[in-house]
Amino acid sequence: MGKLQIIVGSVRPTRAADLVVPWVAETARANPVFEVEVLDLREWPLPMFAEHAGSIGDRRDPTYSDPIVKRWNQTVRQGDGYLVITPEYNHSVPGVLKNAFDNVFVSNALRNKPVGFIAYSGGIGAGIRAIEHLVHIVVETDAVPLRNAVVIPFVTEAFASGRP
Question: For 60, 82, 89, 96, which has the most beta carbons within 10 A of its beta carbon?
Answer without folding.
Answer: 82
